[in-house]
Amino acid sequence: MDFKKEFLKYLRYWPWFLLSLILCVGAAFIFIKIVPPTYQTSALIFIDKKQDDKNKIITISTDQKSNEANLDDEIRLITSNEFLMDVVKNMDLGVSYFEKVYTTQNNYVNKVPFILNLTVSRDSLPQVSYEIKVDKTGFVITDPAAEKKFRVNGYDGKDEVEGLPFKIKLSAKAKKNPSNYFENEYKVNLEPTAEALKNLKTALIVVSDEKSKGTIELNHISSDPVRSRKILNEIIVLLDKSIVVNKQKTFTNTVAYLKKRIKSFAREKDSIESVKERYLQNNEIGVMDNYVAEKTADRTQKDESSQLNERQIALASYALNDIKKTEAGQTLGTNYNLESSIVNQMLLNYNTKLMDSELILQRAQKNNPAYITLMTQLRVQKQEILNSLEGYLNFLNQNNIANKSEQSIAASKIKNIPTQDKILGNINSNLSMKEETYVALLQKKEEAVLNGAILESNLKTLNAPETNYSAIFPQPRSFMLGAFLFGLLLPFGIIYVRLYLDTKVHNEEDIQKVMNNIPILGHIPKIDTNEKLENTATSHSLIAEATRTLVSNVRYLLHKKKEDKGNIILFTSSIQGEGKSFCAFHNAVTIGNLNKKVLLIGVDLRNPQLHEYFNIDKNVPGLTNYLSNKNDDWKGFLQKNNNYSQNLDILLAGEVPPNPSQLITNSNFELLIEEAKELYDFIILDTAPVQIVSDTLNFSYLADVTVFVVKYDYTDKSNLVHVNNFIKKEQLKNVGILINAVNMKTAYGYGYGQNYSYQYQEIKVKKPWYKKAHSLKEA
């Protein structure tokens, strides 16, 4: 990007920038002077969260971030509608007093010489402003919006005026000398509490300080610093009271809850104790350890008794079998170790009688009646012993069955001891937990009562409300700088959009972006009508120098031609009004002044323009006459002896024909060109625009050079695309671009200005002072 070119592109609009700067900076200066400055009042408070943690009845520790710096609840409280509504009502923010001055906003005042007693509730106050003036008879109250005036007679405020929502009276101090206030005018703004609350929330900014944990910064923005400080002080006082009240509620609710829980835990503890008591009774447990020892001893006793009984069964069975095997007359054993004293005694008695029988048998025979009687008694007695043994054995078997059952019961009880111990342990654990919780609740209740008795706020004011008297709006330095930048950017933006939306051709770059391989032959400056014909051989005018440059560049395109004779130069454009006839005329005059024979032909049969430059009638015979009648000699239609060059002949178009396309395509025109080549060095053709009609394309192949005329700030860039297509299709030959009507005062990117003016002092144009300055700057 060529920054110099871009800079010059915008520099030519410097009056716009100057005007914009003057307006913006001036408006900013006036605004700063008439608008009362807005100030920010700040206060810093500290809320000790650690104190709250110390006073908590129940503290739950977590691994999460400490709540020491979490002030969201306090910030939500301060910015809540209910809290701020108390501030509005306590400070009566629905009524504002101003001293009337000539600014966009009147100055707020804290003291006025009168007192307003509202006759309606603050919630239903109308949003209205009144202008109040004190005079000799009372008060004059004006409602500017409704254009109404109210008269209040006297200063005592006893009269209620219909249409006013208040009564008014002079203050005690003002009553001493009311005349001191006759010249002053005051303004009172009334608004309902809802609107006052909305305004307060808009002006209040509450943030927590991240660097200093536990601190809250309060900011109030207003044009009255005194009122802002009072509002912040009121917020701090209400917040302090609110913290204390909330703590009182918390402790009250905590104590009530603890009492309720203590009562509940007492019932639950009694219930668990009753369950334990019933369980011990049902399971015949006194003390669990004694119960275990008792049941263990019982099972051991049952086992021993069972073993002893089984031994007796074995001994009794042995004794019974042994006695049965014993023959009559043999002694029965007495060492069976039976625990039946009856059986043992019977065995002793049997053996004693057996001994008696033996004594009898020694003195007598076996048939002795005494012996027989005794033997009979022994058999009976032996049978009785056997019966007793069988009975004893049955008894022992019954005891064995009973012992087994008792053994099973004892073993079952021993087996259930762990379960019973677990159940009893759970009961004891629940009871212990309930007892510990009960004691802890009693302790917390006492702590809550003590904390409630010595309750204090954890809020501390670190910085009392202070006002920063460096106005935050409007800030003169930044406001003026912003106005200056806006004054620059506004015209820049407008010019940028204008240039961005502008599709006209303004410089060579615009052309080369579309037709990059086509050479630029030159630039024809825009001149006044009086300068159009100043193109003599000795002329130093801009048009003369520009056309001489054009001729030189055209000759460069003709350098391949062997003969410097019969050169055909075709002038055309994309649309009408781009000045091709003007350029063709001046080019013909310049070449003629170079002692070259030149024929200028007006080939634009639809809209001929050449006659205007020679002050000749439009309908004089010309090209159309020759083309329509071959028998005519075209040389007879030439216009000679003009005032511009003796070497210049002109063949005008003549009358406009009804069929120009058919007329121009007949062989007469080509024959004319061939004959003219022999007579003239240059043949200049002024043709029709190629984008409108196809006339020029029908004979463009005859041209040695095609000069395509583009008009500065007139030709659309889209037209160049169509022409470029004609060139690619070779419908136009050896094309060069000529930029016409370049405005030397506004054009950028051409290098004009001093280059065309410093040599030719005869062209003197009176310039304004700012253009002279611009010219000196370019020099």
TrEMBL record:
Pfam families: Wzz. GO terms for molecular function: ATP binding; protein tyrosine kinase activity. It comes from the Bacteria. InterPro entries: Bact_polysacc_biosynth/exp, LPS_length_determ_N, P-loop_NTPase, Wzc-like_C. One of its GO terms (cellular component) is plasma membrane. Keywords: ATP-binding, Cell membrane, Membrane, Nucleotide-binding, Transmembrane, Transmembrane helix. SUPFAM superfamilies: P-loop containing nucleoside triphosphate hydrolases. Gene3D superfamilies: P-loop containing nucleotide triphosphate hydrolases. Its main location: membrane. The chain crosses the membrane at residues 12-32, 479-501. It is found in: Cell membrane. Residues 14-90 form the Polysaccharide chain length determinant N-terminal domain. It is a multi-pass membrane protein. This is Capsular exopolysaccharide family. It comes from Flavobacterium defluvii. The lineage of its organism: Bacteria, Pseudomonadati, Bacteroidota, Flavobacteriia, Flavobacteriales.
